[in-house]
Amino acid sequence: MEDFGCQMNKNDAELVVGRLRDDGFIRCESIDEADVILYYACSVREHAEERIFGRLGALKRLKAEKPDTVIGVMGCMAQNQKEIIFKRAPHVDLVVGTQRFEDVAEFVRELEHKDRVIAIDGGEVSYQRDITQRPVQHQAFVTIMRGCDKFCTFCIVPFTQGRERSRDPQSIEDEVRALIDDGVQQVTLLGQRVNTYGLDLNRGENLARLLDRLGKLKGLKRLQFITSHPTHIDEELMRVIRDNPVHSRYLHLPVQTGSDRILKRMNRGHNVESYRRTIDMIRRVVPDMSMATDWIVGSPGETDEDFAESVQLLRDIEFQTSFVFKYSVRSGTKAARSLPDDVPTEKKKERNQILLAEQEAMSKRLHQARIGEEHEILVEGISKRDATRWFGRTSQNWIVVFRAERDFTGEFVKVRIVDVTALTLFGELV
User: Fold this and answer.
1) 364-368 average pLDDT score
2) Which of 5, 324, 328, 392 lies in the 20 to 30 Å Cα band around 160?
3) Pick from 119, 144, 171: which residue ends a domain?
4) What is the pairing mode between strands 389-393 and 399-403?
5) Residue 415 is part of which domain span?
6) CA-CA distance, 122 to 138, in Å (whole number)?
7) Is the distance from CB of 290 to CB of 318 less than 8 angstroms?
8) pLDDT digit string (tens) for 232-275?
């Protein structure tokens, strides 16, 4: 089982592994050993889909050598691209959409007497999970809602995930309690538009009250959430975060562009001025909040002037992190139907590099101001670049690398920042 894309895909992949394990399947260490090979795939970006097709292409020879091997694609890509999957990778046996993945063991067994199984429509996802089936013992994702009602013109999510459906808060609390009892230190709440949690329940529930409720659970050391929409960030939510140190000081708030004209074409529901006011409110109520955002460059109709407004907005707000994406057409979206992809590829690449360079310089400057500060970090493991060092994250989601004589993975430690790059802080144990 391999997952691609957002954190919700990672969480859903955990649920799939748990379901298969309950049904007697055993997870293999390598593809060569496996009788069932599954990809939980994203459809939001073209690059993610091409990575999946690359994986599927590499399996063509294995399928010829072992015809009984089941190869399956699940998730948003399966929901949106089922015909294309079979056309480009005819050796795929199983396509399971976003609402049927709980039944994957049943579908695998159906292939004993069927050539293919397609399960796209019908059903509603249960949130039941085997809490022991997670890749990291001290951290866990918890999905609190599914779907999106926003219908941004560039986005496929409302069509692959459906309308917004929030979980009952008691079931969320029960899951978080069970995770804490199993050793989890940090919980990340997930939703496609997570800060609209509770609106569809029509009984006064919202994300602020859920955070306040979960923040009181004994044993939980850090609580965070992703991803939010700018039109549903308010002072109630920020006050809850400010008043309890268990809440992470990290907010991912995609702006997508600094041009009001392009924002309107995107159907984002906010403009640049309202976004600036929201940022000002956040920093007034929670001064130590670290801000991250998303940008799409080369959207249909984006001119040099529109892009210049994005650069200016990035400079003005001083984001800690920016995730920059080149626009790609997603079949099934409104943009694909009515907005021509008219920005040349080279222009998209150029704008992408400009924003990344601006953000890199800004991140390094902001990091340099941290030298000498002391921060508590949750240690995540050994540094990928240096086996003599460990790394963890602060409440603001800053990555800190440090040396230690023993394994602190899963523990909170205090470090003093002594050096920085644009991406990383380097510290020493206090």
Assistant:
1) 97
2) 324
3) 119
4) antiparallel
5) 374-429
6) 35
7) no
8) 999 999 999 999 999 999 999 999 999 999 999 999 999 999 99
